[in-house]
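Record pair follows.
FIRST:
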Amino acid sequence: MFILLFLEKKLQMTNNDYHPLPQPHELTEREKEDAMGAYLMMFAALATSLPLPVINLIAAIVYYYVNRKKGRFIHFHCLQSLLSQLPTILVNWGLLYWALQIFFFKNFEVNDYFYAYLGFSIVANLIYFIFSIAAAIRARKGVFMYFIFFGPYAYQRVYATQNSLVYENEQPPANAKQNLNKPPF
């Protein structure tokens, strides 16, 4: 049911429902660097020397909220990077929990399932690492790279005309409502 509603809504949208995509020559170097930085948040845990998956997530969330209003290009890459970290973070949390249960609390024993999950975790992290580095390089060049699932969602959220966020590098719409300061009485 949800999929049918989503497809129906997608069919109703036209190109007029989206802002135009910026071309690489239209972006400033600063915008390209900020967009690239969103994908480099995966190294936050390495910088702290802690094997905790939540460090990457916290760094990505902070980076997203600090940079999302700088421009649509930056907002898109920050959102896509943040969303693409969620599956690997969940996989890493599962591995960390399982490893703690085995090695510190002695609740489980090492078995073939653990090694299979460890292998799956390594492969998932390698895929995420490769795609993030490729996306960072492309963002630095001013080119979009759409991750499966996360890219189309980020595009819809950021470039849809319903997006009411005002960006620093764009003029606010003429019909934008501005709140006036009033005294408290």
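SECOND:
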Amino acid sequence: MSRQNKDASVPILVATIGAVATIVAAIIASSTMFFTDLANKKPPSPSSTSLDITPPKLIKTTPPKNETNVKIQSPIIAIFNESIDLNSIENRFEMRDSDNKLVPVQVRYDNKNFTATLTPTSPLKNYTTYTVTIQGGANGLKDLGGNIMESDITWSFQTD
């Protein structure tokens, strides 16, 4: 009787090993696709675990670069392609006037719309060129994945 039980358990053992092998093969296949995507710097497919490897990019400014006749009350806005890490916002935005004097600004960030709004702490002057710089590079602005904006971004506008 002992021999019959031993022989009867062989198919169960083989089926168990087969199921484990199938699971291991599936894990290896999906991780291979994931790492291949990383190596090619492509975002992983929606079915795999996503990992953000793309640095944030500025996609729009208000006022636009080199705009003239900008009202001194106009909002100063930077819109990004993705969410920015709130801890990296502070001290990454700088505004200077035509004399290269620092213009103190407060920065408010709207994560829902990926929008940073700069508000000067004192009124802007008429007929003045202002330059806004967003710090990139090693100590620059970061997205939620920790990716750093590759380089500084600068744009200027002139008030009327």
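COMMENT: The first helix runs from residue 2 to 39.
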